[in-house]
Design a protein that fits this description.
502 residues; alpha+beta; Thrombin, subunit H; Pdz3 Domain; 4 domains; 6-stranded antiparallel barrel; 10 helices; 33% strand; elongated; EC 3.4.21.107; protease; Pept_S1C_Do; periplasm; PDZ
Length: 502
């Protein structure tokens, strides 16, 4: 039967070709969309013929959110507050501060019939440093307005929960974003540019997309998401909320087909916590980390670049109490592998404070497991002091500098006077870089005058001779790189893999 069908098909194709040859001059080309050449086909299974019925059901639960803000501005009119305030225009200087009104627009969705509303935190936040939000208004699709109360907000996840006084309100539920796949259809409903309810459709372009923050693992979509869509829902084809539209990637501020939504699996537990009036807490180890790049893996003699390297350990925090040290390579947490998508930060942050957490790491080439009792992550303000200082290069003396041509660096002893000059803590031990060859790998990777080399390949450095020995040991082991541990100012130290010159 297979052969019979094949022969019949060949004859039919041959007949069609013969007919075309008779009607069309040899070699002539016809339009791709010649009338009758293309016939409408029914959508394949799973593809919608229309979103209309679904949107009609869902749109009433999607709301517009607006804020009224009071912005304090410095008035440059010297006659401000006098009868002559408007006589000379707004010129001059030294006037008193005045206040102006500001507004913001965004989207949200109702999650209960009694009026709990989910949106992005940035939708209801002040638009400027000197602004305060005076009121939040929720407007339903039928035009009815409610004054909303902020029940809870979480800056790190960019989520907020509001409450309006109503009953029998239309609402929607969270779905399971873990079932989402790249290529699935999605629908976004929101209020871009204050135009009113707007519906866009597209597909999921990527999952677990990293954008900016340590916990960002977005659903990426090409459904048009623009300013004002923030806080609105992303629906799957069953009408479940699988994401909260949050950000766009655009050089112009408009949609270019790259939008991001917070997955429901991340948002739902945070929303539930905020709705109860509780504060969102996250686990904390008290470490600075950086990815294990192929260069770092090569410098340490590791077979593969996996896990994350501990670059700093805060005193009297969970990691230090568990015995974790700078230079340890963390490869697993409670049986889960540390990867680019599933980082140490995410795994620990999603752990309840007080939990005893087994952490698998590699130290000096040997694999071992330590157990840490997870602490509570401090606020963003408390963590702000741990950023590496990027100020200009300090001035310091050069006498006694020793050059290492293999790394392209000149170093000298770190004296108390130099430590004060370059702004490092007096307790720091190492050698200070007095010069870096800009053509060397070290220079290309940003190592500069005033940096302090604390260790080489995890061995302490107190003199130029220690660097020479470290380079020699790496060469003996057949490696072409060394791993320098560098302190800059009062910031957290970091690891730099540096190529050894011939």
């Amino acid at each position: 039967m297979r052969y019979a069908y094949a022969i019949t098909t060949a004859l039919l194709v041959g007949g069609a070709a013969a007919t075309m040859t008779l009607d069309t001059p040899l070699g002539a080309q016809t339009a791709q969309n010649e009338p009758g050449a293309i016939q409408a086909q029914s959508p394949r299974a799973g593809a919608p013929t229309s979103f209309a019925d679904m949107v009609a059901r869902l749109q009433p639960a999607v709301v517009n959110i607006s804020t009224t803000q009071r912005v304090t501005v410095q008035n440059s009119n010297p006659f401000a507050g006098t009868p002559f305030e408007n006589f000379f225009g707004n010129r001059g200087g030294g006037g008193r501060p005045t206040t102006r009104e500001g507004q913001s627009l965004g989207s949200g969705f109702i999650i209960s019939e009694d009026g709990y509303v989910v949106t992005n935190n940035h939708v209801i936040s002040p638009g400027a440093r000197n602004a305060t939000v005076e009121s939040v208004t929720v407007t339903l699709s039928d035009g009815k307005e409610y004054v909303a109360k902020v029940v809870g907000r979480d800056e790190e996840s960019d989520l907020a929960v509001l409450k309006i006084d109503g009953d029998n309100l239309p609402f929607v539920r969270f779905g399971d974003s873990k079932q989402a796949r790249v290529g699935d259809w999605v629908v976004a409903i929101g209020n871009p540019f204050g135009l009113g309810g707007t519906v866009t459709a597209g597909i999921i372009s990527a999952l677990n997309r990293v954008a900016a923050g340590p916990y960002d693992r977005f659903i990426q979509t090409d459904a048009s998401i623009n300013q004002g869509n923030s806080g609105g829902p992303m629906f799957d084809m069953q009408g479940n909320v699988i994401g909260i539209n949050s950000q766009i990637l655009s050089p112009t501020g408009g949609n270019v087909g790259v939008g991001f939504a917070i997955p429901a699996e991340q948002a739902a537990p945070i929303v539930a916590t905020l709705r109860r009036g509780d504060t969102v807490t996250r686990g904390y180890l008290g470490v600075g980390i950086q990815p294990v790049t192929p260069e770092i893996a090569a410098a340490l003699g590791l077979e593969e670049d996996r896990g994350e390297i501990i670059r700093s350990v805060e005193p009297d925090q969970a990691a230090q109490r568990a015995g974790i040290r700078p230079g340890d390579i963390v490869v697993g947490v409670a049986g889960q592998e540390v990867t680019e998508q599933q980082t140490l930060s995410i795994l620990v942050a999603n752990t309840r404070p007080g939990t005893r957490l087994p952490i698998e790491l590699i130290r000096d080439g040997r694999r071992q497991t330590v157990t840490a009792t997870v602490g509570t992550r401090p606020s963003q303000e408390e963590l702000a002091g741990f950023q590496m200082d990027e100020e200009g290069e300090p001035a310091m003396p050069d006498p006694g500098a020793t050059a290492d041509a293999t790394l392209g660096l000149s170093v000298q002893a770190l004296t108390p006077q130099i430590a004060r000059s370059i702004g490092v803590d007096p307790s720091v031990r190492g050698v200070v870089v007095s010069g870096a060859d800009p053509s060397s790998d070290a220079g290309q990777k940003g190592i500069r005058r005033g940096d302090v080399i604390i260790s080489i390949n995890r061995q302490p450095v107190t003199s130029a001779a220690d660097i020479t020995r470290g380079v020699a040991a790496a060469r003996s082991a057949g490696r072409d790189q060394v791993l320098l541990y560098i302190q800059r100012g009062r910031g957290a130290p970091a690891f730099f893999p540096i190529e050894i010159a011939e």
